[in-house]
Design brief:
With 255 residues, this protein is an alpha/beta fold. It has one domain (9-251): TIM Barrel (Alpha-Beta Barrel), CATH 3.20.20. It contains 13 helices and 8 strands. It has helices at residues 3-6, 21-34, 51-58, 84-90, 100-104, 110-122, 135-139, 143-155, 160-163, 184-201, 204-209, 223-227, 244-251, and strands at 10-14, 41-45, 64-67, 94-97, 126-131, 167-170, 212-215, 234-237. Strands 1-2-3-4-5-6-7-8 form an 8-stranded parallel beta barrel, surrounded by 5 helices. Helix 4 links the parallel strand 3 and strand 4 (94-97). Helix 2 (21-34) runs parallel beside helix 3 (51-58) and helix 6 (110-122) packs across helix 8 (143-155). The longest helix has 18 residues, at 184-201. The structure holds 2-phosphoglycolic acid. The site of 2-phosphoglycolic acid (PGA) has 13 residues, from strand 8.
Length: 255
């Protein structure tokens, strides 16, 4: 069986802190009307203030919407935060958790990330758990141990049924926004390692079910090599998801 028959294939665009409201809506409409492949899920992660407009723009299309972050409590006195209930309320079915910019710029810890994963699963929101090593860690030969530790901490106490709802994005920090994409071989080897770690934490069936996306300088000219790899189940794209044509060239890639 090929990977499309075994796991959901996901092509996601993380718009970070970019776009105006109008640009966000135009981007969503352009992407929704230009995607021509049905064996994969396309998910847009707009800035939260534009979530409702983007959900409306995607209505009646297969394009899904997620948010880039959330807090883990259902509600409360947490100024500036968004709750899982709010995400559900506006129609966001996915959330990015533990993106490297959250970990490294905003100091999110493995413990916080763990709570967010649990909360997303409890609220039936698909967490896209981002993991990945820094350049120093790769140079010291610690890529696998770093990612293993991030996975163990994020999935602690999460049972098999919960784990099956998660998506993982392997995003080496040295590749994010740098133009230095991981080679398909490096990415595939880390994805295989992630699948083996899931096998150890759970079992074969869970490891085969969870989609593992690659992220970090994915562009129209490198997507084909990456997506040809058997354990790369799609991509999480930053910069190249901000223009309709470049994102369409990525999501419409053929195997
Ligand atoms: P990039 O970002 O594609 O601009 O490298 C990827 C990400 O941060 O998810």
């Amino acid at each position: 069986m090929n990977k499309q028959q075994v796991r959901k294939q996901i092509f996601a665009g993380n718009w970070k802190m970019y776009t105006t409201k109008r640009e966000a809506v135009e981007l969503a409409i352009g992407i929704a009307s230009g995607m021509n492949i049905i064996d994969r899920e396309v998910v847009l992660f707009p800035p939260s203030v534009y979530a409702t407009c983007v959900v409306d723009a995607c209505e009646g299309t297969p394009v899904k919407v997620g948010l880039q972050n959330m807090f883990y409590e259902k509600e409360g006195a947490y100024t500036g935060e968004l709750s899982p209930r709010m995400l559900k309320d506006v129609g966001a079915g996915y959330v990015l958790v533990g993106h490297s910019e959250r970990r490294h710029i905003f100091g999110e810890t493995d413990e916080l990330i763990h709570k967010k994963v649990i909360s997303a699963i409890a609220f039936d929101i698909i967490p896209v758990l981002c993991v990945g090593e820094l350049l120093e860690e790769r140079e010291l030969g610690k890529s696998e141990s770093t990612v293993e530790s991030q996975l163990i901490k994020a999935f602690a106490e999460i049972g098999e049924q919960g784990a099956r709802k998660a998506v993982i994005a392997y995003e080496p920090v040295w590749a994010i926004g740098t133009g230095k994409v991981a080679t398909p071989e490096i990415a595939e080897s880390m994805h295989t390692f992630i699948r083996n770690t899931l096998k150890k934490l759970y079992n074969d069936s869970v490891a085969m079910t969870i989609p593992v996306l690659y992220g970090g300088s994915v562009k129209p000219d490198n997507i084909a090599g990456l997506y040809a790899m058997p354990n790369i189940d799609g991509v999480l794209v930053g910069g190249a998801s901000l223009t309709v044509q470049s994102f369409l060239d990525i999501i419409n890639v053929t195997l």
